[in-house]
Amino acid sequence: VTVANVQSLYCSFIVTGGSSGIGKSIAVECYKQGAFITLVARDEAKLLQAKKEVEKFAINDKQVVLCISVDVSSDYSQVESVIKQAQEKLGPVDMLVNCAGLAISGKFEDVEVDRFKKLMEVNYLGSVYPTRAVITTMKERRMGRIMFVSSQAGQIGLFGYTAYSPSKFALRGLAESLQMEIKPYNIYVTVAYPPDTETPGLAEENKTKPLETKLISETSGVCQPDQVAKIIVRDAVQGNFNSSVGPDGYMLSALTCGMSPVTSITEGLQQIVTMGLFRTIALFYLGSFDSIVRRCMIQREQSKAADKRE
């Protein structure tokens, strides 16, 4: 898949989690470039609303937005069946965007045990199943792009994300392993690590987010989904393995690159040169996060002591 044919009028994209947030913005960004879009999500009403919003950005009268209501994390055979339907209607998938996700925050002992399982099902298996359903055709055609939308919480474990972070970390392991398998077939994987983004999911998460997590999150800003989508789509089309947003995102990706693939020699050299500096900066960040956690703990203990005295 070259930049030219990814952006061609007859290119077929599937976006899971496409009814809202980053997923919907990615669908809009691709539609603006002439793609045919299949939106996949659970809520049919939200899907139909998203379809109307995406269709406003058509650049020609041949473009189509298809909606499929399915839970991508529950049953592989069902996911395989609906993706087959999509391919029959709009042709083979040129790019799969795995954006279906769920965020839950809370202290480890406060998060219900079944929530850990739910997050792994939605955030990890919800990406495995659609990918499994398109990979054979992509290999036969010797072309394709697969995108996994992780999170900065998939690069660094933070207070309050003991259930969420592991499910997003898992995507990187999948992406690195898969990329090594499918690169000879001219198929490229991109892992996106967006920061906090102003989406319905973030608004819902903020209702129960621990104070420590809120204070740590406030050390970096909140991005807009359109801004994030533009960067992610650009990186996926170019075949970049990592996709990050802003200076903090770039630093975090370089710092946590480990054994991940590089797109160019230049990228690898930049990581080598900046690693020491970024590690120094990161230690200051980690120190400030630990300080926030300690401060909150002390305040709670003082508050409890004051209540007892009363």
TrEMBL record:
**What is the source species?**
Sander lucioperca (Pike-perch)
Q: What does this protein do?
A: Catalyzes the reduction of 3'-oxosphinganine (3-ketodihydrosphingosine/KDS) to sphinganine (dihydrosphingosine/DHS), the second step of de novo sphingolipid biosynthesis.
Q: Where in the cell is it found?
A: Endoplasmic reticulum
Q: Name one GO cellular component term.
A: endoplasmic reticulum membrane
Q: What's the protein here called? A: 3-dehydrosphinganine reductase
Query: Which key words tag this protein in UniProt?
Result: Endoplasmic reticulum, Lipid metabolism, NADP, Oxidoreductase, Sphingolipid metabolism
Family, per entry: Belongs to the short-chain dehydrogenases/reductases (SDR) family.
**Gene from which the chain derives:** bcl2b
Do you know which Gene3D superfamilies this protein is assigned to?
Answer: NAD(P)-binding Rossmann-like Domain
Q: An example of a Gene Ontology BP annotation on this entry?
A: 3-keto-sphinganine metabolic process
